[in-house]
Amino acid sequence: MEIYQGIILGILQGLTEFLPVSSSGHLVLGQIYFKITQVGMIFDVSVHMGTLLAVLVVYFADIKLIFASVFRVAAKVAGRKPFVHLFKTDENLKLAVFIIVGSVPTALLGLVLKNFEDVLFTSKTLVGCMLILTGTILWSSRRYYNNEVSGGKLDTRRAIFIGIVQGFAVIPGISRSGSTIVAGMFAGLDRDRAAKFSFLLSVPAILGAQILSVNDVIKTGMTIDPAIIYGTITSFFIGLIALKLLLKLVHQGKFHLFAPYCWLVGVLVLLSKLI
Hints:
The chain is mostly helical and 275 residues long.
């Protein structure tokens, strides 16, 4: 793969990871239509790491508070001091627990679907159908905008539900950000809280996928070429811009406006299979 091709895919990843239009689906389409070969899970996960860095930058303050709460509990455990009360009073510690709880179903589903990666990442028909599904999910979010008035609090049940949805979002064409944010709103969270949990929940998911990819590199003997490096850097900077834009649109209640785009691209992809 040439460097310019890696940059093209990096731009696609950066834009579509956070904008709810499915980054994996667009990466598959980008590889097919730009005739980019020899791109597998390693490149896909690497550019996802670029966008993960964007999440870490935007949510740095929240992540720092979460780790501070976890270390506080660890210190009390090491000193044999009571710590159970912290789980009731420390909101950041609760958030850490919900992220762990939500990550479990994501990991299990990810491991299962990884066995079908050769099919999932090569089918235009699948991508087209899933993009249409994503558009429908986004459009349905309109009815949940009023959750900001009587929004529920994040709990174990909601975290597991959102984690399950995130697990299925490994299928190209299903937007991870779009599906998990709508899942949170469907479960009763206000849109800002749903978006925050969605992106914090993505951190362990992407890190876990990166760990698995390292194992694949060792087994296959593949190396990281310059195209992957440039693609990852590009995905970070473009992703940073896209994430801030998405959070603004979610806050303004314009999240569903991405639905027509998903429908259009999905239909065009399916039509291209018939022509």
